[in-house]
């Protein structure tokens, strides 16, 4: 079982707190090349140093900025691998899935479903309200963007998923010995981590409902499917399609995408529509395809552990 893989002799919750600090610290270290590049550009061009986030995002070429942002996640991934293996003495696969090996068909199916849906919705929005978008396609800049995005955005989204739906999901499960607490905590923390995104500053804290709801949907996928594969595919598709197809001055990623949203953003029903309608339908699709059963047990069940003579931990479950 996915969460139970954290229940090993010597594994303690404090290690997850320390491990999280290490991974976050590694991501900050990964931003040093970006800081150096900005400083070099300042010396070369004589332009004043940017003093706000908008200025920082546009100080360098957008493709170069995107590369440096994503580079910090690559460094964080290395740190996460080391933390899992050296601090928790687990196989890295164990924070990805409970299956003997990663089910890439699940990853690609989730990626395909959400990628097609996301691209379709963006194109629908462009053709139904063309005044809100401009076509800014530049073949040369887009080609560079595509290479950077296709190679590095899956690393970024995988780090986020494996930290929240893998590492911390198991850590909070180890602490609480149930399933509902890690589901709620990882979703709230996931939403909280996005509170500094420029979208929140532009539209208000109501956007947090979307981020927390997204975290909740991804957590449900993970618990019901006993692995992060579906969440990995979803998150990669979501960010990759957004980076390639549409950008705006108020989004986290500034890219040479095909379209640019020039409308004034507002927080309306479209913020809660995915949480209340689209995500439940997506979960029903996955449930039908992968024959999910025992929703109450898998989402709220307690974890009762017994120590065998060979010191391996196995689990039985009761219901709340």
UniProtKB/TrEMBL annotation:
Q: What is this protein called?
A: Lysostaphin resistance A-like protein
The record's listing under InterPro entries reads:
Rce1/LyrA-like_dom (IPR003675)
Keyword Transmembrane in the entry? The reply is yes
Membrane-crossing ranges are 16-40, 60-84, 107-128, 140-159, 180-197, 203-224, 236-259, 271-288
Please give the Pfam families that the UniProt record associates with this protein. Answer: Rce1-like
Q: Which residues form the CAAX prenyl protease 2/Lysostaphin resistance protein A-like domain?
A: 144-241
List the keywords (alphabetical): Membrane, Transmembrane, Transmembrane helix
């Amino acid at each position: 079982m996915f969460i139970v893989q954290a229940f090993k002799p010597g594994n303690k919750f404090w290690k997850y707190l320390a491990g999280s600090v290490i991974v976050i610290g590694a991501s900050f270290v990964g931003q040093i090349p970006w800081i150096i590049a900005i400083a070099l550009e300042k010396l070369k061009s004589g332009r004043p140093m940017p003093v706000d986030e908008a200025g920082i995002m546009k100080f360098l070429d957008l493709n170069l900025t995107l590369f440096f942002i994503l580079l910090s996640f690559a460094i964080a991934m290395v740190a996460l691998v080391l933390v899992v293996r050296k601090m928790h003495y687990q196989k890295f696969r164990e924070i990805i899935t409970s299956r003997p090996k990663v089910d890439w068909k699940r990853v690609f199916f989730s990626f395909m479903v959400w990628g097609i849906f996301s691209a379709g919705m963006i194109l629908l929005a462009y053709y139904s309200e063309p005044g809100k978008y401009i076509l800014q396609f530049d073949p040369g800049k887009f080609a560079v963007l595509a290479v950077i995005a296709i190679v590095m955005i899956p690393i970024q989204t995988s780090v986020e998923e494996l930290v929240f739906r893998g590492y911390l999901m198991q850590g909070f499960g180890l602490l609480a010995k149930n399933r509902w607490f890690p589901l709620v905590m990882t979703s709230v923390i996931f939403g909280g981590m996005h509170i500094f995104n420029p979208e929140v500053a532009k539209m208000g804290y109501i956007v947090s409902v979307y981020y927390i709801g997204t975290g909740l949907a991804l957590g449900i996928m993970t618990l019901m499917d006993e692995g992060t594969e579906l969440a990995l595919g979803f998150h990669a598709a979501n960010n990759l399609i957004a980076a390639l197809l549409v950008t705006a001055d108020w989004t986290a990623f500034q890219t040479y995408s095909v379209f640019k949203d020039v409308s004034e953003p507002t927080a309306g029903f479209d913020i809660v529509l995915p949480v209340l309608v689209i995500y439940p339908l997506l979960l029903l699709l996955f449930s039908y395809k992968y024959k999910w059963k025992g929703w109450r047990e898998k989402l709220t069940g307690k974890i009762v552990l017994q120590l065998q003579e060979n010191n391996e931990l196995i689990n039985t479950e009761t219901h709340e």
